Amino acid sequence: MKAHELYSAVDPAIVTQILDWFRANDRNVYRSAVATLADNRKLRPVFVEKKSMVEQYAWVHKTLKLKACNTIGEHLLQAYLMSGQQSLLAMFCDGMGIPHDGKGSVVGNLPKKLDEERLNSTLERLVDVFDPKLLTVYLHCFNMQVDGGWPELNAKLESDARLVLA
């Protein structure tokens, strides 16, 4: 799944949560994202900035669903997860036995194969701690790190009723 497909499938509340986080913690990223998306649509950023916050978020979300905006959408997801959801990333890496920097950023190479038992037990713990929709967004983003994703994670995302985007 590509970033634009993720934005098409995700619960709008998750996108609102992400954009709220950027506005509260890194306004420059939010402004830069709006400016880049507006430029991509051949608009001036002021067109978006004049809208109410609800309308801005709806416009940003709608625009991130476009294939042409895939790269900025992926960067936004990565920036949010790496800065705003470090505990989720670290707990996932710990559970999977993936070396990381303590904040969830992988150290070294990603595994070629995911241990299915570890994946199941890790996800059981994470589903109890984090919003399953946010966890699912992270799992899809993690899965984007290798072409075609990991078969074990793909199977889990397809079969586990708790791991839905909307």
Features:
166 residues, mainly alpha, 2 domains, 10 helices, 68% helix, elongated
Question: Mind telling me the C-alpha Rg?
Answer: 16 Å
N to C succession of SSEs? HHHHHHHHHH
Strand content: under 5%
Chain-averaged pLDDT: 94
Q: How would a crystallographer describe the biggest sheet?
A: none
Domain tally: 2
Oligomer: single chain
What structural class is derived from the secondary structure elements?
Answer: mainly alpha
- Kindly state the number of beta strands: 0
The shape is elongated
Describe the structure.
This protein is mainly alpha-helical and 166 residues long. The chain has two domains: 3-84; 86-159, no CATH class. The protein has ten helices and no strands. Helix 1 crosses helix 6 and helix 2 crosses helix 3 (27-40). The chain is elongated and about 50 Å long.
In short:
Helices cover 68% and strands 0% of the residues. By secondary structure, the chain is an all-alpha fold.
Compile the SSE list and pairings:
Layout (H helix, E strand, L loop, with lengths): L2 H7 L2 H14 L1 H14 L4 H5 L3 H12 L5 H15 L1 H11 L19 H14 L2 H12 L7 H9 L7
